[in-house]
C-alpha cells in the first residue's frame, strides 16, 4: 500500500533528524518533494570532477605503498630485518585487502564525503546510531588531520637526509626539520585550495609519476649495482635479525610487520559514478600498491651491501643509503630520492585534500564546533576554504611536538592509522552483528563472503591495536616509550565527553537520502 506524502516526510524525519529534514524537504499543494530512494544525496554537494583514473590516482598517491615502504624501513629493519620487510609487506597487503573490501562495498552502497560515519549511521540501530556515528565521524576526522602530517614529515626527513649525505658534517636539529615541515604543509595547502579546478588532472598525474618513478628507481638501482655482489635469496627472503631488544623473535616480527603496513571516501561526492568508481579505485590501489612495493623492496634488499650502515646512517633515510650503496654516486642517490620526494608531495597534497573535505563534511552535518562556519564551500574554487586551512593549522600545531620528542610525534602518526582503520571496521562490526540486510543494494556486492569479511575486520583491528601499542625497543625509556595507546584512548575520551556535554542534543546524524533499514 502506497504511503501518503505526509507519511513519507514524517518517516524521513526519523532518520534525517528533525532539523536536517527541514533542510531537504518541502511540501507544496499536498505533494512531498523529498525523494527517498537508494540514490544517496546530501544537502550541500561539490562539483563532480573525478573520473576513474583520477580517483585511482588519489587513492594510489595516498596509499603509495612502495614509497611509504621506502621511507619507513628503519623500524622493520630493527625488528627482524629482511624477513619482516618482505613478508610484512605480504601480510600487510592481505590485512589491507580484507579491511578495504568491505569498506569498498559500503562506499558503493552509500557514496558520500562523510565516509565511515555515514555508513555507521545507516547500519546501526536507532538507539545507538547518533552516538556511534558521532564517534566514527570525529575519529575519522582526527585521523586525517594526523595522516596529513605524516607525509610532510617524510618530506622534511628526506630533505634533511639529502643534506646530510651531501654535507656529512651537517647535523640537522629537530626544530630545523619542523620548520621544513611547516613550509611543506603551507605550500601543499595552497595547492590543495587554489588548484582545486585542476585537481583531477593533478591526481591523475600523481599516478603516472609514481609508476614512472618506480620503474626508474628499480631499473637504475639494479643496473648500477652490476659488478658488485648481490645478496643471496636466502638473505632477502629468510634473513632474520632482531636488534630491538625483544627476546622473542616472534614478537619482534609481528611488531615489525604491523609497522610495515602503512583514501578515497572524502572525495566520493566529486566523482561521476562513485558507486562503481570507488570500489575500482580502492581495489586497484591495493593491487598496484602491493605489486610495486613488493617488487621494489625485493630489488632494494638484493642490492644492500651493508645493513648496519643503513640502520646507523645519520641521514635517517634508509632508501637514500641503499641508493648510494648501489650506485656509488651521491648525485645518483639524490636524484633517485628526489623522484620519491615528488611522489610523497603528491601524497601530502592528497592527504590535505581529503583532510579538509572530511572536516567540511562532518561540519556540514553539525558534528564540529562552529559547524556553520566550517561547512562553507567557496563558490569560485569549489573548495572548503575554511575547513582545509584549519586541518593544516592543526597539523602544524601538533607537528611542533617533534621538536621535543620525535618518538612522541611518531606515535601520533601511528595513532592516525589506528583510528582510521577503527572507523573503517566499526560499521563492518555492526553489520556482522545486526545482519547484512541493513546495507542498501549496491553495484559492488561481496555476496556470501561479506559476513566473513565483516567479522574478520574488527578482530584484525583489535589485534593491530594491541601489537602497535607495544614499544618497538627494549628496555623502555621516556625517549623510546610508545604513546599510541595514550593518544588514541585520550582522543576517544575527549570525543565522548564532547558528545555528552555539548553535541548530544545538537547532532542529529548525517543528512542522507536513504533511510536506515531498521
Automatic annotation (TrEMBL):
It is a multi-pass membrane protein. The chain crosses the membrane at residues 50-67, 79-101, 142-165, 177-195, 207-226, 246-268, 280-302, 322-347, 387-405, 453-474, 480-502. InterPro entries: AA/rel_permease1. GO terms for cellular component: membrane. It is found in: Membrane. It holds the Pfam family AA_permease_2. One of its GO terms (molecular function) is transmembrane transporter activity. Gene3D superfamilies: Amino acid/polyamine transporter I (1.20.1740.10). Keywords: Membrane, Transmembrane, Transmembrane helix, Transport. The keyword Transport applies. Coiled coil: none annotated. Its main location: membrane. This is Choline transport protein. The lineage of its organism: Eukaryota, Fungi, Dikarya, Ascomycota, Pezizomycotina.
